[in-house]
Fold this protein.
Amino acid sequence: MKKRVLSIDVLRGYDMFWITGGAGVFIALAKALPSPVTDFLAQQVEHVDWIGFHHHDLIFPLFLFLAGASWPFSLASRRSRGISTGRIALGILRRFAILFVLGAMLFGLLSFDFAHVRFNSILGRIGFGWTKWAFFFKVIGMNAITIYLLQWAWSFPTFGRKVFGGVAGLLPEAWGSLLLVSGCLLLKWLVLLFLYRRKIFLRV
């Protein structure tokens, strides 16, 4: 595996943690264990109505920031391998086209209802824009596009209910819900860990 910038991978993983289910854990926690602290945390993972901001309002801008922050390292890596400026430019256009199409497919492109297709998807904007405690987020960050696409292609909540549903059914409703949401997030992470251990990464 080529040398990577750990801080960017970790921060990207932190961002994807919230996008792929971390927010649901804190919402469920507030229901299972109501208190001023858990209520405040649950509020932070809801978008605010255009007055001020909550934690969750920063997640998407952070991802776009990371797309830009990682670009100089990617560019330096390509140039060190002797790749010409023309090929680098073509690679940028190819990456944008792939992410743009994938994002549009997730939001209705294949239904051919073009009046309602969402072309300004997260993946499209990413394509346009470009230690031990950190390992959890690093695993997510190194395959961020993979988990974003995979959660649309595979029903993690259904699989999570099959794995954790029996135990969740024995718990009070709020705690059972917390277990299911957390378990679903854990399953996503384990899939990414499997890919990480085998050095399988989606790069476009």
In short: The chain is about 70% helix and 0% strand. The mean pLDDT is 79. The CA atoms of residues 4 and 74 lie 9 Å apart. Residues 1-70+138-204 form one domain.
